[in-house]
Amino acid sequence: MESVCGQEEMCLLRKPNNHLDAIFLQIIGWVPEVYDNIDELPADMPEDLKEYIRIRTHNNGGKTPKFVWMSCRGKNPADEKYIGEIVYKPWQGFPAYYFPYMNTPGYLPPIVVVRFVAPTFNVVIQVECKVYAKNIKHKRQEGLGLLIYQKL
């Protein structure tokens, strides 16, 4: 089993199966500032994630669920071409009630399983996963708010 962590302890846990990756967050002491309504969603958030949040909000009686949202895609246009459909389980993000993480012994961080339905085989694909909350800044050069890794 392979483990890779980004700058802010957004981590990838990968088993040999090339279709599934497990991603978890464990930023010590961090408390997410969640989006309280869909009008607060950032302009640079992917449209498919915004639509997912709209549906979850509608199904939750009009209240936006308190989540740190996540979206994975190809890092570059060439990667997008080969990555295929992505499915997230159990949700496309992490429930806010898991935070703050305090490095407590025995604590299990929240995990999102990312399933790549039909990626192109024998091609190196760079995957970029970003998490979204009001107090998360994305800086690719510094690895903030995101995790970049490769699949083959």
Question: Could you characterize the architecture of this molecule?
Answer:
With 152 residues, the protein is mainly beta. It has a single domain (2-151), classed as Na, k-atpase alpha subunit (Immunoglobulin-like, Sandwich). The protein is built from 2 helices and 9 strands. The chain has helices at residues 47-59, 77-83; strands at 2-5, 10-14, 20-25, 67-74, 86-89, 93-95, 111-116, 125-132, 146-151. The strands form 2 sheets. Strands 1-2-3-7-5 form a 5-stranded antiparallel sheet, with no helix packed on it. The chain has a 4-stranded antiparallel sheet with strand order 6-4-8-9. Strand 2 and strand 3 (20-25) form a beta hairpin. The radius of gyration is 15 Å and the shape is globular. The chain starts with a strand and ends with a strand.
Strand portion, in percent? 25-35%
The arrangement of helices and strands along the chain is EEEHEHEEEEE
- Work out the radius of gyration: 15 Å
Strand order of the largest sheet: 1-2-3-7-5
GO molecular function: ATPase activator activity
Keywords: Membrane, Signal-anchor, Transmembrane, Transmembrane helix
Organism: Meganyctiphanes norvegica
GO cellular component, one term: sodium:potassium-exchanging ATPase complex
